[in-house]
Design goal:
- By secondary structure, the chain is α+β, with helices and mostly antiparallel strands.
- It contains 8 helices and 10 strands.
- The strands form 3 sheets. The chain has a 6-stranded antiparallel sheet, covered by helices on one side.
- Strand 1 and strand 2 form a beta hairpin.
- The protein is globular.
Amino acid sequence: MSDQFGNLQIIRKIGEGGMAAVYLVSINNSSQKFAIKILNRRLTSNKILQDRFQREGITQLRLHHPNIIRCYDLNKLNGYIYLVMEYVSGPNLHQVISHSTGPIPAEFAIPWFCQLLSAMSYAHREGVIHRDLKPSNILVKDFSGRIKGNEVLKIGDFGIAKIIGRDGHTEAGAKLGTLFYMSPEQIKDSKTIDQRTDIYSLGIILFQMLCGRLPFRDTSNEYSIMGQIVNMPLPDPRTFYPHVPEQLVNIIYKASQKEARHRYKSCEELAAALDFHDI
């Protein structure tokens, strides 16, 4: 990749995964910075991955919320498919928990978590289910190494988001998502995924924020992880971090119930349980 990409000046690479690379760029050397996400050129012949990448752009182009990473353009240039996106300076939530904070005290975790609820409440009202919520898909803007209280969380990576149709059905055999945060119905390939699958993932994220670790045993055996998610009760968060308030323990349990019908029905209902109503 050269230093110039159309009218975009590439400043540096921000990150890279198996599917795409992300670069910090300016337009014609202006002071305004953006991030561009470029699909790996070797994957442009893979229609499934190309469609997933384009779906991410199309979905985020329609979502305008302060806690969702803004997408400004989906385009093609010289055989590359790319997204022009809001640049968010700061680590992702997984990096914050793993390398800086460990368990996040409830006084900070709840305001951060309510930002996520606000974003997903909006997305659900717009008919968008994320299906891959996880800390590595959440950027923490203005995080300086310790929590000050002015940080802004922004959700990205809507590549496997589902646009709710009339029948509420999803793709046949579409076991999509990141295993540790997948709801039991995602594991079981349910054909009726709805917003409560995101609520399950949010419950696991809240557990991880408060405890500094995931609830289920880390193992390289995917079938074992799936079995734990589908069959094993969630452990008491206080087993791993004794300072989690009982109210939050009960909220985590309800958000992450095995049966979707037993969870909170909406992000608004979950926010109300936290005594937070401004979403």
